[in-house]
TrEMBL record:
It holds the Pfam family AP_endonuc_2. Gene3D superfamilies: Divalent-metal-dependent TIM barrel enzymes (3.20.20.150). The lineage of its organism: Bacteria, Pseudomonadati, Pseudomonadota, Alphaproteobacteria, Hyphomicrobiales. Residues 55-260 form the Xylose isomerase-like TIM barrel domain. SUPFAM superfamilies: Xylose isomerase-like (SSF51658). It comes from Rhizobium freirei PRF 81. This is Xylose isomerase-like TIM barrel domain-containing protein. InterPro entries: IolE/XylAMocC-like, Xyl_isomerase-like_sf, Xyl_isomerase-like_TIM-brl.
Amino acid sequence: MALAVDFSDRFAVSTWSLHRALGCIYPYRPSDSADPARQPAYGEGNIELIDVPRQCAEHGVFRLEICSFHLPSRSPDYVAEFRRAAEKAGVKVQTLLIEDGDLSDPDTAQRDAEWMAGWIGVAASLGAENMRVIAGKRWPTDAALAMAESHLCVLAEMTSAAGVRLVIENWFDLLPGPSEVNRVLDTLDGKVGLNGDFGNWERAGKYEDLAKIMGRAELCHAKGRYLTAGLDVADYVRCVELSNAAGYRGPFTLIYDSPYHENEWSGILEERECIAGVLRRVAAG
């Protein structure tokens, strides 16, 4: 018999996991101040973003992460409407994910930092607990890291004043390994949090590297690796186990990114059950 443990606050879903159901995107870019037109990047889709909180609640997931390119509008009216829909469903907006920008490029970092700052009010109005930004895409030279750290420090002060936690992710060329991630976190001394991602370091030594950062993570993108036979359970379980062993106790954001299941919720729920099985075993001692 499965151990009855309340995991209601241990799981979240990213809108990326529903990108086929949503279909269209709105690719906001720091190089263009105008709001982007709707683009059917993954087909026309069959739901709108406003429907996602209700779907989350119906599937027993009560935390949600929103990719910036899924927001059809940043207008105060739309943002308020979405927040009401989330509150009605009992779903917390865990993170607004800002999906563009580079704080390590000397030619554009200032512009991109100002563009990211422009999202802070949106995150706060959505009721988002966190806002994730891209630390940088340049190779991790000392100069590139220092530039990103400087901009992150300013952004963190602004997000904190708005009641939102700024987080970064082990993602792109600036943060290719634990030494770079830990350097940035150490330099910023608690001002910025970490969203650890299982799928961004797909290489030899990834488990050892993840183990060196997941104890510092406040959030986790639990991306399942899907093969032709389905979910790579051994890989997924190992990532969850090493995170738990490192001391990670935050929510697991279920990232489903595969054509294996036609219905994306089938993949999301498969990932949740796999992680829940690990957590039950841990709870049972």
